Amino acid sequence: MDNISIFLCFVIGLISLILISFKKRYAYWRDRGIANLEATIPFGNLPMGKVHIKDITDPIYKQKKPGAPFMGAYFFRTPVVVATDLDFIQNVLVKDFSNFHERGMYVNEEDDPLSGHMFSLDGEKWKSLRAKLSPTFTSGKMKFMFPTVVDVADTLNSTLAEVLKTESELEVRDLLSRFTTDVIGTCAFGIECNSLKTTDSEFRNFGSKIFDKPLHGPLMELFRTQYPNLARRLHVRVVSKEIEDFFMGLVRETISYREKNNVRRNDFMDLLIRLKNGEALDERSQKLGRVTFEEIAAQAFVFFVAGFETSSTNMLFTLYELALNPDIQEKARREIEIILSKYEGKLTYEAVQDMVYVDQIISGK
What we know:
Layout: H1 3-25, H2 28-31, H3 53-62, E1 70-75, E2 78-83, H4 86-95, H5 123-133, H6 139-166, H7 172-189, H8 202-212, H9 218-226, H10 228-233, H11 241-261, H12 268-276, H13 293-324, H14 326-342, H15 349-354, H16 356-363
Antiparallel strand pairs: 1-2
GO molecular function, one term: monooxygenase activity
Main location: endoplasmic reticulum
Organism: Hermetia illucens
């Protein structure tokens, strides 16, 4: 047998083993008598191409079995549960949450410290970090940050007024992204990003790079998701070194300046610094120990990443729907005017809490 024949036999054998492996894996739910969708090699139940999460879950919900609390599906080779019953969802998220806290996200804290944030961590690390950070997200702490948000909103109003003097049309998506960048940059990092005043701010540019220029393509994402231990041994990162250097440097400079000059602000960074220095935000946090610099940087990073794009998109869709429904827009305007009159025309935390109809619009209720 010549070398080419040997090579072809090897390739055919390897492909056969891979197919058999997938077939066996895709029998996971069937062997356990669980209703499931037929999976396609190699993506499982994930459609090819970039799609919305709704396009992934819709076929599963449509084929759910009566009385079954969940459906079985496959994320590439990994069997996953898709909850389809409200009571079951409540059990997972509330009653039995201690058994369902893992997220299955790739984390590499050693080579990529910004990946070690609360959204991705699992197990005891996640429990410990969540317990330490929970006091930073109380309504009281959010209330302290509210004046900072109002200041940025005033800048948004003035920027919008300036733009409309010279232009009849504007890109609302970009304007709102710059607004949320400034809000989170101020609250999470305690810096003036000035994204509203200049479209080329460094903070805004790095925020765009996170989403517009991902470090890896789909194949590498598949590899690190399916084989996380091997990916860590190979030092695979989630965040690019350029972005890491920027955010780590920013947090380091912010902490150094505040501690050196004894600066205190009502923002997220101030709370994180207090945790780093062993200060208690409440009775429970005093017993949990300090957070490290890397943990501070990672939480500030995810606070920014999870906030600026999602918030601006929600605002964009809200404005679009209000434009299509002038009657709803007018009703919201009347509520705002009535409530602001109670608070002497000032947009306070309590005033926003009283705007029930506006909250329903934003929340899509």
